[in-house]
Amino acid sequence: MKVLLTGATGFLGSHLLQALLEAGHDLIILKRSFSDTWRINRFMDDICCYDLDTITLKDLFQRHGKIDTIIHTATNYGRNGETASEIFETNASFPLNLLETAASLNTDTFFNTDTVLYNHLNYYALSKNHFKEWGRHFALMNRIRFVNIKLEHMYGPNDDDSKFTDWVVQNFLNDISELPLTKGEQKRDFIYIDDVVHAYLTLLDNCLATKDNYLEYHLGSGNTITIRKFVETLHLLTNSSTQLNFGAIPYRVNETMNSCADISKLRQLGWKPECELTIGLKKLIDAKLRKM
Predict the structure, then answer these.
(1) Helices 277-291 & 227-237, crossing angle to 10 degrees?
(2) What is the distance between the alpha carbons of residues 276 and 259, in angstroms, rounded to a whole number?
(3) Beta bridge partners of 246
(4) What are the percentages of helix, strand and coil residues in the chain, rounded to 5?
(5) pLDDT, tens digit, for every residue of 18-36?
(6) Which of 124, 155, 192, 217 is labelled catalytic?
(7) Which domains does the chain have, with CATH numbers?
(8) 124 included as an active-site residue
(9) Is the pTM higher than 0.85?
C-alpha cells in the first residue's frame, strides 16, 4: 500500500514509520526542510522524503500517482510560545490543504491523530477540533474516508522532554531538589507507544474494508491513574530524592479532570493494550538512563 505519513520526524510518526516499513508498505513522508531527522536517519534510504516548504502538495501527488492512504500525525502543541495563528496553520490549515488535495486526487482514506482534550482548553485543542470537523464534513460529502483517532496520553522512548511524562522522568533522574506540581487529582489514561502503533496498524488493516466514510476510535489503555499516583510511581521507580510539591501549580482553566478511553471498538477489531503501565515506565526510564 502506498502511504503518505506526516509528522514522521516526531515521536509517534517515527515509531509508525518503522512499523509501516516493516509491514512492507511503500512509504512517503512529508516534513519541513529544517526538521530534525535524528529519530529516522537510519530509514532515510528506504523512504521517499519531501519538504513541504519546497514542494507543493499537488506536485507531490502527481509524482507518485494515486496515494492510497494518508496517516497524519504532525502537530503543534504550542509549547514554544507559538501564536494562535501559527498553531492553527499547523493543526488545521495545513492538514485541510492536504485533505482537500488527497480527496481531489482519489486517495481512499485519511487517518487523523486527534486529541481527547476539551476544545477550549488551549489553542492546540481548539485547532485540532477545527480540523476534525472539516474531516467529518469531507466524509459526509463522500469525498474521502476519514478515520479520527482520539489519542490519550502516549509515552515511551525518544519522546520530547517537553512532554509531561518525559519532563517528570528527566527531573527525577537529574535529582532536582523540588518539583512543583498541581494537586494531581486529574485522572489520565497513559498508553505505551508500541500499543499505539499496533492500534494504527490494526485500523489500517481493518478500516479500509468498511463502507462507512467517517469512523472514530478512542485510543488509550482503557484505565486511569491520578497524576499524583503516576508521579509518585515514577518517583519510586527512579529512586529519586526530589521533593514533590503537590499544589504548587494551579490547575489550567477548563482542565479535564477525568480522561479515559473507551477502547471497546478497537477491541472488536482484535486489538488490545499489551504493555502494563509500570513495565512501560521502566522501559522509558531505562532508555533515558542509557542516554545519560
Answers:
(1) 50
(2) 18
(3) 181
(4) 40, 20, 40
(5) 999 999 999 999 999 999 9
(6) 124
(7) 2-157+190-223+260-275 (3.40.50.720)
(8) yes
(9) yes
